[in-house]
Amino acid sequence: MEKDDLKEVFKGLEGTFDLAEPEAGHKERFLEKLNKANQVVTLRKKKKNWWRPLSIAASVAVLCLVAIGVYTSRPTLDEQVAQISPEVSNTQVYFASLIEDQVKQLENESSPEAQKIISDTMIQLKKLETNYKQLETDLINGGNDKLILSAMITNFQTRIDLLQDVINQIETIKNLKNYNDENFTI
Hints:
Order of helices and strands: HHHHHHH
Number of strands: 0
Low-confidence stretches: 41-45
Shape: elongated
Number of helices: 7
Helix content: over 70%
Distance between the termini: 115 Å
Radius of gyration: 43 Å
Number of domains: 2
Strand content: under 5%
Mean pLDDT: 78
Structural class: mainly alpha
């Protein structure tokens, strides 16, 4: 059925087909027009190509400048505290070095008997450090300076006292162990 319809369509178009050969040089003229069109397109692309890298570079430069401006304009928490009270920064350095020395001494005394006490102490030190950071924030936000500074010093003293107590407890544990070992006979 479809074959019959196709045959009828072609029979109807039989005299209308263009069967003439193209003129001589047709192919060359066509290729020449095609090359001219490609050159125009190529020239347009070359003009656009230098804008894209330039705009990307400009965007990156602007972002870098904004990031540098934001980063350098904010002083750290310690710098802000030092601006409010320079004595606090000096005291902080002193107490921090004492605490660091005692923590190292505590870690050197580590033994299976004292491990639980040491881990609990480290947790307490982290809590006290968190409280100290909150006190620094309160000082910067304009709280009662004298009261907050006193609380900051008390925080440092509490950490030092805690470490000294734990070191003394570990020494007591070691002495008890040595004493029990001496009294034990086989």
